[in-house]
Amino acid sequence: MAAGPRPDRGRPVPPGTLVAVTYPYDAPQSQVLFDRSIAVIPGGVNSPVRAFRAVGGTPRFMVSGHGPYVVDADGREYVDLVCSWGPMILGHAFGPVVEAVQRAAAKGLSFGTPTLGEVELAEAIVARVAPVDQVRLVNSGTEATMSAIRLARGYTGRGKVVKFAGCYHGHVDALLAAAGSGVATFALPDSPGVTGA
Asked: Hey, how many other C-beta atoms are within 10 angstroms of the C-beta on 145?
């Protein structure tokens, strides 16, 4: 939820208090960035979940984050309820995470080969999450859902997949049919190039 500048920051909000948010508000710097991005990025954003087409207005471009807050290009602060769709569960710029990333980056960022770090991470996950015996590390939720669909189809021998209508489950064709439409489309693609589910 957009909070805008918060003069009361740090003071608790009484339970049951309704906070009025005026929307859309002017976002001149986000508009400048959106205009620039439209020239070099199809639709101006790199994911359909970042587009504002359904709600109108200009996508808010974030420039920084700290703890549970993100700050847009116009200097407005928001409570981050999205958490980068999951990965930011510890908040933005969390000291121990920043330090760990800096230590890892100093050793090299990508090798295209198996690494000690991925073995250690997989071992840590398996040790902490019962009854998990093995894990597959991937780069995104899209890769995770693609692998899950393949695994489920291979294991069950079935071809159909159930998804939540009108919801985004990753940028894979089988899950993009009717993504975000909220309308029953009988697994018809939303746009050319997207196959039916």
From this structure: 19
